[in-house]
Specification:
Rossmann fold, 2 domains, DNA polymerase, domain 1, alpha/beta, globular
């Protein structure tokens, strides 16, 4: 079996010509919004934040399966999911919830992200985000995190009208750069996203920050990294 961190099965693979990143949980810390208001929420904030994230993703998958007539953008799903998590954990302070929700538009990047994006830029590779986020929230997030000038583009699933891991979403990256999936690296911390990108044909890098067990047989066909710091070296 491959060693845990990033043994790459790349024999016969084509050279990487662009690097596509997931945003939430990969470049941006999804728990930063609630962490910023932890003193007002209380010691259960990590569980509330985890439930918020889980419900946010559940809503995206359900609406994708139900078809275009039931589509709602990710900002609205984020708001709906927060309302559910707050009700479940009996958080009733409307002012706190409003502040937490707005903080989601200004999430902190993981510490290594800016330097990694610069290093990949120095390799001469285009860099883009491909995210479930709607364009407005992505613009706010990348600007507040100081990443906007380090990216060549920010692609939203709204152009496809369906959420990841639908292949129509991954196709947006190829259309933007005029490349086949096999010519692009796709980087995500979400196992389901990494699997969807692999199924589409990307060369996939799974950022397993928490050391979680592998799902979907990922270790057979992706590069596993503990964080993004090793990514530039792995792209060669």
């Amino acid at each position: 079996m491959a060693a845990r961190w990033g043994i790459l099965y790349r024999l016969g693979m084509t050279q990487i010509r662009a690097v596509i990143f997931d945003a939430y949980g990969t470049l941006l810390d999804i728990h930063a919004a609630m962490a910023k208001h932890a003193a007002r929420i209380g010691p259960d904030w990590p569980a509330i934040s985890a439930d918020w994230r889980a419900k946010q993703l559940e809503y995206s998958w359900v609406r994708s399966l139900m078809g275009p007539a039931h589509h709602r953008d990710f900002w609205r799903l984020t708001e709906d999911a927060l309302a559910w998590a707050a009700a479940r954990h009996h958080v009733a302070d409307a002012a706190v919830l409003a502040d937490v929700l707005m903080a989601y538009r200004h999430l902190d990047p993981y510490p290594e992200v800016p330097i990694v994006l610069r290093q990949i830029r120095d390799l001469g590779l285009p860099r883009a985000i491909l995210s479930n986020g709607e364009p407005g929230m992505l613009a706010d997030a990348t600007k507040s995190a100081g990443l906007d000038h380090l990216l060549d583009d920010v692609l939203s699933i709204e152009a496809a009208g369906v959420f990841k891991p639908d292949p129509r979403v991954y196709r947006l990256a190829g259309q933007r750069f005029g490349l086949a999936g096999s010519q692009m690296a796709f980087v995500s911390s979400n196992p389901w996203d990494a699997y969807g990108a692999h199924a589409f044909g990307f060369q996939v890098f799974w950022v397993n920050r928490g050391g979680q067990p592998a799902e979907y047989g990922l270790r057979q066909f992706v590069t596993e990294l503990p964080d993004l710091a090793r990514l530039p070296g792995a792209l060669h």
